[in-house]
Write a structure and sequence with these properties.
CATH class of the largest domain: Alpha Beta
Number of strands: 17
Shape: globular
Structural class: alpha+beta
CATH superfamily of the largest domain: Metal-dependent hydrolases
Distance between the termini: 26 Å
Helix content: 10-25%
Largest sheet: 9 strands, mixed
Strand content: 25-35%
CATH architecture of the largest domain: Alpha-Beta Barrel
CATH topology of the largest domain: TIM Barrel
Order of helices and strands: EHEHEEEHEEHEEHEEEEEEHEE
Length: 304
């Protein structure tokens, strides 16, 4: 089964206008399977939600984390149950903090890397210089409140450039909730799991093999067959998702991009068309332009 994860959310414990209870109830109302609390530089909301879920047996699972909010960018950790001091923050060596968080059992991500930053939102743009992605689990390629072309498109392109050059880093999305915002036709993160699976461990497992989907509600799945790679559509049943009359699949490799009509629900692409190169599959509802993007699927790795 596929689970919807909302990995980036805030409450009144930091700078949001919603309480821990309101956040939890909002997630339940929208059919979310797992959500994270990632308040800015504080873990004070974690025991509040733990108590709420334990006492009321609510039908949702929570990840307990935090968002490091620095002058050089934000590092979002949807799993960070042990507060890790960030006096090691270094613009030239952010790996120090990523590594410290990972050693404490955290899941780490780069939040909204191309946000406007100064002078509009000081520190929101990621200006740290990562040279080693070993301890970086994912890049938030879509931050839903941010502008599509100015902020999210560069995030998608950065991730694509990294993975197509061989870097093992996953793609995720974030609502970055600060209020009771409508989540219809917004991107969420999807991973595979089981009904009774541990949400933190399932997330770690998916990130370890870069098997995450960033989607508005329709997923594009792929598998190898004798004839080639078969792509199929899977409706994740996300509330508010508006289906399209036409679906286009694109495959983007390092030096080429190809398009295929997948309106029928599936398409098989011969191996020689992919040329045994890594490729990023993306699904569009209509012409393959950014405004029509529906899903970014896990990168196809053709080499060990």
């Amino acid at each position: 089964m596929f689970k919807r994860y909302e990995l980036h959310n805030h409450t009144t414990e930091s700078d949001a206008g919603i309480t821990c209870r309101q956040l939890t109830e909002h997630m339940i109302a929208d059919g979310v399977d797992v959500f994270a609390i990632t308040d800015h530089n504080t873990v004070s909301g974690q025991p509040i939600i733990r108590k709420l879920l334990a006492e009321e047996n609510l039908p949702i699972r929570c990840l307990y984390g935090m968002e490091y909010t620095t002058y050089y960018g934000h590092i979002v950790c949807p799993v960070l149950e042990q507060y890790v001091p960030w006096d090691s923050i270094n613009r030239k060596k952010p790996e120090l903090l990523f590594r410290a968080c990972k050693e404490a059992g955290a899941v780490t991500g780069v939040a909204h890397p191309f946000s406007y930053g100064d002078p509009f939102a000081r520190g929101c743009r990621f200006e740290m210089e990562i040279t080693d992605f070993t301890d970086v689990d994912y890049i938030e390629i879509v931050n839903n409140p941010e502008p599509l072309h100015e902020v999210n498109e560069p995030g998608i392109l950065w991730w694509e450039k990294l993975v197509l050059s061989g870097v093992k880093v996953s793609a995720c999305a974030g609502m970055d909730l600060h209020g009771l915002n409508d989540m219809s036709m917004c991107f969420a993160t999807y991973i595979e799991g089981t009904a009774d699976g541990d949400p933190a461990e399932e997330l770690r497992a998916a990130l370890a093999v870069q098997r995450t989907w960033v989607s508005k509600g329709m997923l594009v799945l792929w598998e190898g067959t004798e004839d080639g790679i078969r792509f199929t559509l899977h409706d994740a049943k996300k509330p508010g998702f508006v289906p399209s009359d036409r679906y286009v699949l694109t495959l983007k490799a390092k030096n080429w991009t190809k398009e295929y009509d997948i309106t029928s629900g599936s398409v098989t692409i011969p191996y020689d068309e992919i040329r045994f190169e890594d490729a990023v599959p993306k699904l569009y509802g209509g012409d393959p332009i950014l405004e029509n993007l529906i899903c970014v699927a896990p990168v196809i790795r053709t080499k060990a």
